[in-house]
Every structure is written in C-alpha cells, then in structure tokens.
Amino acid sequence: MATQFVDRVVLQVAAGNGGHGVASVHREKFKPLGGPDGGNGGHGGDVVLEVDPQSTTLLDYHRNPYRKATNGRPGAGDEKNGADGDDLVLPVPQGTVVKTRGGEVLADLVGFGTRFVVARGGRGGLGNKALASPRRKAPGFALLGEPGETRDIVLELKTLADVALIGFPSAGKSSLVSVLSSARPKIADYPFTTLVPNLGVVTAGEERFTVADVPGLIPGASQGKGLGLEFLRHVERCEVLVHVIDCATLEPGRDPMTDLEVIEEELAAYVPDASLGGVPLSERTRVVVLNKADVPDARELAEMVRPDLEARGLEVHIVSAVAHLGLKELSFSLARHVAQARAEIEAEVVPQRTVLRPKAVDDSGFEVRRENTSDGEVFRVVGERPTRWVRQTDFGNDEAVGYLADRLNRLGVEEELFKAGAVAGSTVLIGPADDAVVFDWEPTLSTGPELLGRRGTDLRLEDHHRPTRAEKREEFHARKDAQREAREELDTERRSGIWTDRDLDEDDE
After folding, report:
1. Residue 150 parent element (H or E)
2. Which residue range(s) make up the domain with 399?
3. Is 18 annotated as a binding residue?
4. 376, part of any domain
5. N or C: which end of the chain has fewer CB within 10 A?
C-alpha cells in the first residue's frame, strides 16, 4: 500500500512544565534546624522541529496532531535538584514552512539537521536553599515551576526543486521525469494519475538539478478546483517552469496554444508567499515542451505551433518521452537555465550580520496600562518578569506572597502604579488578558515615597521640634502609672476569684 502524502497540517504542541522547587530543612543528630536544603525543580522539555532526510510527508502529524514534551521533575530535600524534562524532537521533511494560525511565517526549514524550537519549556522553580539570603536565612517557601508554552502551528511542505513540470493531466509529465532521471513515478492512461509531487535528479554535463512532477492543473486550479491549489505551493521554490503540452490530445477545445494560455492564467492568479522571498510565477523562466512527438499528427501540430510560441519569446522543445526524442537537448537547456538562476540568487544574497541591541538603561522590562472595563477601572502590569514571578508564586503561603511583593516593589511596580493614578484598593492585573492574576492593591506605605510629601519637600526636614527634659520626664511617669494600674487590676481580679496562683502553676506544668 502506497504511503499517503500530506503536505499541510495544523499541529498543537505543548512544551513541558517546569518542576516545583521544594521547601525543606536539613535535619541530623544534634542539629534539629540545620538550615534550608530544598532543591530546585527541573526545566520542562522543549518542542523542536528538525529536518530529517528520512521524512517525506506530514502524515504522522495529520493522524496525531497533539504533541507534548515531558515535564521537569520537582526538587527534593538534601539539595537535590529535579531532572530536566526531555526535549520532544519532531522530524519534518526538508522544505517545511512553519506558520501561525494567522499566516505569519515563523521558520523556513531548509537543510538537513536544521532545528527550530517551536515551544519552550517552563523554568523550574527555585527551592528554599536557593532563596536563602542574609536577610532571609530560612525561607519557609519555594517557587513553583513555570508552565511550558502551548501554541497551534501550521506546517506546510513546499517541495525543493530547481525545475517544475506543469501542465494539464495526462500531458506526459510523469513519463518525462522517468526518462530524464531515475525517478519511477506512477504512469497510467487516465487523468490525475499523479497525486503527489515526484522528484527526480537530472545530470547534464557538469550540472546537476532536481525536477518536480507537479500534479495536473485544470482551469480554476488557483481557486481550489481539482488538485491545483493543494500543489501549486510546490512550484513556489522552483526557478524554472516547464510547460508540458500534450500535442496528441483528442479532447474537444484543446490545442497547444489554448492549454498554454489556461495554465499561464492559473500561474498569474496564484500568489506566492512574499515572506519567503517568492517571485511571482508569471515572472519566472519558462520553457515550453511539446510532448508526444512520436505520434505523426502530434509532430505535425508541434511543428505548426512552434513559430507562434517562439514569437512570444518562449523557448520551445519538441520531445517524445516514449521514443526518447529531443531529451538530451532539453536536459542541457534546463541545466543552462538552472545555472543562470543559481548565479543570480548567489549575487543577490547579502551576508547576514549579527546585530546586537543592548537593553536600554531606563528599560524596566514592564509597563503599567490604565484600562476601563465593564467592571470598572483596572491597572494592568504587562512584562515578562512580573508575569513569570506571579506564575511561580504559591498564593497559599503568606511568606511566598510577601516575597512576591518585595520583588515587585524592587522592580519599581509600585512606583509606576502611583504614577498611573492607582490608589489603595485599586484592581491590579498582572499578566496577559486571557490569563491574568487579579489583586486588590495595598501599597507598601512604610517605604513609599508618598510619605515624604510633594516633590522637592521632605516632611522629616520640616519637623524641627525636639522633646524637652520635662516632656521626657512626663512621658516616663505616664508609662510607670500605666504599669501600676495594670498590676492593681490583676491583683483585684485574683482577690475576686477570677483566677488563682494554682491556675498559673497548672498552666506552667
């Protein structure tokens, strides 16, 4: 049974999640509290596309479009870090184009071994050993692992060939490929025999090039009729287009000139992907092959229309794949055109330069947006680091929440919220619109710059009063009087029987 050919699939990929860090305390004999020793979680595995010479179709992904990498392992006590998740490597054929659902090109995979990371795994969370510092010697919390990326991508296979044979069904394209190269495509006497592009390697003198046999085109192929729309994409990478015209057809309304005009209209209507540097098909080098010249009537018709085709500036070859007529001249002509196209491409190639764009000094890595929603006014904090920190926070641990608040404050989030007009109780969202964490903001007033007054002033400098000795003596006597009153109240309660000295002894025991 022949392998089914699939050249376009929608693939849903998910990278592995990062492993959670662990909060642990080192314990051993005579050292009940030996300090934090929780290990870090492992990183999640990436999803990687790699060009594999053994892969020729996207059929596996058509049957199983859901792929996920393994998660990172959580950390453990005794400073044991979790293992990283394994990368998921997906083999794809050469010439695969990776796009988003919206049509944006992410990568053009050409060259065996070329790799592209389509989804990155999440970072592992830090354990309390890594979170320990001189200020926080024994953290009672750890960070959670970061979720891996999930995305939907479109894989399109566009055949890499120098020459494309195009024409109506049963024009003899497969037969021509079989005699020009060692390829053995399916050949039969009915239309649409070729259902998949067939590649063949042709050697002409010192030049070697590849020829693609594209399935037959019919009027309306650029709009999806027949098989044209599905396989015209395989012509995009070909620099030389060869019109294979059947001069022995007996169908009414068919003649070489009409067939050529119909196919030219379909080529002009098809728009190549500009992001791949595609040149319009109507502007590429074209050669006309009048096939089946072994039939006497076909040979006579070919000789008749040849001057008209050459008058249009087209190079014409009269051949017969069955009788091997004119094949040598055709192969050397195609080799010449391919060599010329390769030379033009090499002349246009600009060496790639590595451009380093250092981060601006005043770039905080986040921004605060003031938004009006149906629930009222909110303040959204957008940035890579704040979003990652929120995802790694265990909100069931008060110490972890306090650590998050300290990190956001050091990053300058509170200051930017003040500038944006936020006040205590304002709704603050951190993260993207579809997956944000909501807070009722309570600013850190103890260290906030708003306590110092308006800009250019300092309330601490405006208070010039120093307590006198009499004021200090009065404060001391007030404190002593409060202590004496408290003792007298306790003694009164004891005498009234509310509690006794025996109760205190039992509590001590």
Report:
1. strand 150-157
2. 367-462
3. no
4. yes
5. N
Is 40 a known ligand-binding residue?
Answer: no
- Whether 243 and 385 map to the same domain: the answer is no
69 labeled part of a ligand binding site:
no
Question: Is position 366 annotated in a ligand binding site?
Answer: no
Residue whose tokens read 């590849």: 210
Domain membership of residue 361 (yes or no) is no
Name the band, by pLDDT with cuts 50, 70 and 90, for residue 134.
Answer: confident
Residue 413 is labelled as binding a ligand: no
pTM equals 0.67
Residue found under tokens 């995009």:
236
Is 358 annotated as ligand-binding?
no
| Confidence class for position 12, pLDDT limits 50, 70, 90 | very high
pLDDT in tens, 40-81: 999 999 999 998 888 877 888 988 999 999 999 999 988 899
Residue 281 falls inside a structural domain? yes
- At 348, the pLDDT band (50, 70, 90 cuts) reads low
In a domain, 408, yes or no: yes
d(CA 305, CA 309): 6
Rounded to 5 degrees, φ, ψ at 129 are -65, -45
Residue 214 among known ligand-binding residues:
yes
Cα 372 from chain centroid? 31
Question: Helix crossing, 398-411 with 413-420: angle to 10°?
Answer: 70
Ramachandran angles phi, psi of 321, nearest 5°:
-70, -30
Annotated ligand binding at 189? The verdict is no
Is 216 annotated in some ligand binding site?
yes
Q: Are residues 181 and 316 in the same domain?
A: yes
Q: Is 213 annotated as a binding residue?
A: yes
Neighbour-count burial of 221, counting CB atoms closer than 10 A to its CB (0-12 exposed, 13-18 middle, 19+ buried)? buried
pLDDT of residue 122: 92
